[in-house]
Amino acid sequence: KAGVTQTPRYLIKTRGQQVTLSCSPISGHRSVSWYQQTPGQGLQFLFEYFSETQRNKGNFPGRFSGRQFSNSRSEMNVSTLELGDSALYLCASSPPHSENTGELFFGEGSRLTVL
Amino acid sequence: AQKVTQAQTEISVVEKEDVTLDCVYETRDTTYYLFWYKQPPSGELVFLIRRNSFDEQNEISGRYSWNFQKSTSSFNFTITASQVVDSAVYFCALSEYKAAGNKLTFGGGTRVLVKP
């Protein structure tokens, strides 16, 4: 059974640009969450989507947005990139019986470097 | 607001030693979940355990054991007879039931280095 797949794995952007990251959850999983991991702030919740609807949102500026498609695949977008957006962005999905319990299956992340 | 504190940033042990990771949490909710996740060098977090706030029974799974004490707001994790493969960063996390969904608040993580 394939795990959570994130693309691209690595990318480099410059300040002011925008970036889109993609996440394919495990087949059958409808909940997709996104987390940002940095050395300074640690792991921080960005947002969660369930059946194409955002049902939770973290404390990030409006430059961070996301969406989920009917096949549960999700994308997140960061506009007007800042140096501080350099991070590992982790996507996670939840199995049907654990959609409200925090049991998450994570991908290996997309490492974004902003120059 | 909820908060999770892992005071130990790094622990180094020799193989076969036991290692205990501390986790202290803060929440105003009476119903919540606590978790431990493992992050190996490859980057993906691996779910280890979930406990709900009404279940203070300690749990053992192989070489892993967890001690949940509501009175001290702690949820500690012990690896018995550590192995090199246990080297990773371990995260404690909390979610509040009323929030629904999967919004987790993570601690800062404890890096465990097991030397052969």
Helix content of chain A: under 10%
β content of chain A, as a range?
Answer: over 45%
Q: Approximately how much helix is present in the residues of chain B?
A: under 10%
The unreliable regions of chain A are: none
Terminal residue distance of chain A: 37 Å
Number of strands of chain B: 12
So how many helices of chain A?
A: 0
Q: Provide the β-strand percentage band of chain B.
A: over 45%
Describe the overall structure.
The complex is a heterodimer of chains A (115) and B (116). With 115 residues, chain A is mainly β. Chain A is built from no helices and eleven strands. In chain A, strands 2, 4, 5, 6, 9, 10 and 11 form a seven-stranded mixed sheet that branches. In chain A, a hairpin with a 3-residue loop joins strand 4 and strand 5. Chain B has 116 residues and is mainly β. In chain B, 32% of the residues are buried. The mean pLDDT of chain B is 92. Helix content of chain B is 0%, strand content 53%. In chain B, a hairpin with an 8-residue loop joins strand 10 and strand 11. Chain B has no helices and twelve strands. The radius of gyration of chain B is 14 Å and the shape is globular. In chain B, strands 2, 5, 6, 10, 11 and 12 form a six-stranded mixed sheet that branches. A four-stranded antiparallel sheet of chain B has the order 3-9-8-7, with no helix packed on it. The interface between A and B is medium-sized, with 29 and 24 residues.
Which short descriptors sum up this protein?
heterodimer; A: 115 residues; mainly beta; 4-stranded antiparallel beta sheet; 11 strands; 52% strand; globular; B: 116 residues; 6-stranded mixed beta sheet; 12 strands
